[in-house]
Each structure stands twice: as C-alpha cells, then as structure tokens.
Here is the input.
Amino acid sequence: MKIAIIGVGLIGGSIAITLKEKKFASKVIGIDKDEQNIKKALSLGLIDEGKSLEEAIAEADIFILAVPVDAICKILPSLLDQLSPKQVVMDMGSTKEKLLSLVENHEKRGRLVACHPMAGTEYSGPEAAVPNLFSGKTMIYCDATNSDEDAFDTAEAVVDQLEMKTVFMNAKEHDVHTAYVSHISHITSFALALTVLEKEKSQGRIFELASSGFESTVRLAKSSADMWVPIFRQNRKNVMDVLEEHIHQLQNMQHLLEIEDYQSFYKLIKKSNKIKRILK
Here is the structure.
C-alpha cells in the first residue's frame, strides 16, 4: 500500500512510524503546507518523500488527513472530487458533524472513512511523533455505514496495524461525547495555566512549588492553538454546554468555601471520587 499522509505532525507522523515499521506501507508520502515539516519528517525517517497533494493523488492508495479540522473541511471535498473508485480517504479530525454534513451528498462519499483516534500528547510537529502512540487506545468510526464496504475494510486494516480498539458512533453523538471527555479537559487546562501565569506576576516563586499534580493537570495547556481553536469553533455548541456545567460546579465549590460548609464540600469530593468506576 502507498500511503499519503496530509499533515506530518504528531498524529500523522506517529501513524507513519507504525505503518512503516510493520511494512504495511510500501511507501509513505508526506504532504504539508510547511516545507520545514516535510524536511523534518524526511530527516526523522517518518516519510519516504514529500509531494504536493496533486502529485500524491496520482499514486497513493490511502490518504490520511491529519491536519486541523478547519483544514480538513477545506481539503476533503476537492480530494474526493479527484479520487479514483479504488482510493480511500481516512480523516482523523476531532470533530465530525460539520465535516460530514459538508460531504454527505458527495458522489464519492463512500470512499471516506471518518475516524478519530483517541490518542495524543500535548506536543506537536514531526518531532513529536512516537512509536506505539495508538496501541491499546480507541479509534472511533463515525457514520461508518456511509462508507463503501471495501473502503471500510481498507481503513480497518490500517487501524489493526495501529493495534487500536474500535467504537462506532454517529457524528452528532461523537461530538457531544468528545466535548465532555476531551475538549473540556483542554479548555480547563488552558484556563488553569492562564490563572497561574497571572498569579505568577505577583508571586514570582510560585513555579518552584509546582508538583507532579500541577504538572499533570496543566500539561494540556502546552497543546497547539492551531489545532484546538478550530476544534472549539466547529464543536462550539457542545463545548459551550459542557463549559456551562463545569462553571456551575466551580461556582458551587466557591460558594461552599465562602460559607465554610466543609461538610457539603466533603460530600462533593466523595461524589467526584465515583469517577474511579470509569477510570481505573
């Protein structure tokens, strides 16, 4: 299989590592608007060569879209226009409803398999790519019944190489759930980082006390704005809904501290501990 990866950063680069290591890909073509990313990906051995999208269309069997979701929306319709009946597109976007509505009536919609790997780190760029990033993690397939059977089989073969578990959802369901388990975590981390950075202006030694607990809570604030602003834009309604609930919980805790109701605060923390049933 010849694989074309559009966006040779953390996700695209990590996919390339595995597909090359397992010899699933006979050739990996890198496509990226940043020429420096192509140069880095080549030097790191993530890709075999860099090409334009038009050049890749002439030879690739599978196209993996691993760029920010706004960019996927721009690229996907034109890419589908140019596909042959045997070529397959897998998009790795973190939001799906807007994207899939954009191409729902496209005559080659069946060649698209909409995927979302629930894996990643707070780092970006080709140098952030790592082996085994996806092993044991979950790949979400969205609206899979709208993909041609042979296209889905091809995508499933890629996901098998990545050693991922699979879940099936529709686009609307996906965007609601990811708002709760992923998008709100990033907003909270960004806000906490801003809070501490603001306080650090008057309390200059605050970071000397930062422990592993703080580091693990705020690490997502290192994530790329280029990636996350498009996600928040496309999933705005769901993110606003979960953010409203999150703010309500914070305000409730603030109120309990103001009135010094520590018994109620204790009950809240005990209630939150039930998350252990889900997160082992």
The chain has a mean pLDDT of 94. The radius of gyration is 21 Å. DSSP finds eleven helices and eight strands in the chain. Residues 105 and 246 are 37 Å apart (CA to CA).
